[in-house]
Amino acid sequence: MDLFGDLRRMNKRQLYYQVLNFAMIVSSALMIWKGLIVITGSESPIVVVLRGLGSFPDGHILLLSRKFGACSDGRYRFGVHCFITSLPSRENGNIKFLTKGDNNEVDDRGLYKEGQNWLEKKDVVGRARGFLPYVGMVTIIMNDYPKFKYALLAVMGAYVLLKRES
């Protein structure tokens, strides 16, 4: 299969059509992502489990919703950890949370901002509402093997550009 020969034989109109087709695929994916952000209220509506969480093995895709806010230090952390306890705050009636990863021996206080012992509602990024088992393994493989990622992207790009409508 001679990819460059196929490109040379394509007339300009066909080439423009294929490039436009590729751009539409990319823009559609971005619109779907932004739509999910609006619908779920989460800055990251879909996350891949990279290190097993106990309840969710590696490669599961989690669907998140209801963004409560950023972490206290202003950065977003996308770890999915369970609330292990909560208590009502005496100061303003808000509930405070303590989290712990399923596979961790201790709670997450070491990950909190210095001097912070509890999380509040504003610290929670989202809540897992559903999952797709092992669909995220492709992401893990592409992160572990960058050459595979670039080869896959090149093949997909070439396919979209060279595919001819019947």
UniProtKB/TrEMBL annotation:
The keyword Transmembrane applies. Keywords: Membrane, Transmembrane, Transmembrane helix. It comes from the Eukaryota. InterPro entries: Pept_S26A_signal_pept_1_CS (IPR019758), Peptidase_S26B (IPR001733). PROSITE patterns: SPASE_I_3. GO terms for cellular component: signal peptidase complex. One of its GO terms (biological process) is signal peptide processing. GO terms for molecular function: serine-type endopeptidase activity. The chain crosses the membrane at residues 15-33. The keyword Lipoprotein does not apply. This is Signal peptidase complex catalytic subunit sec11c. It comes from Limosa lapponica baueri.
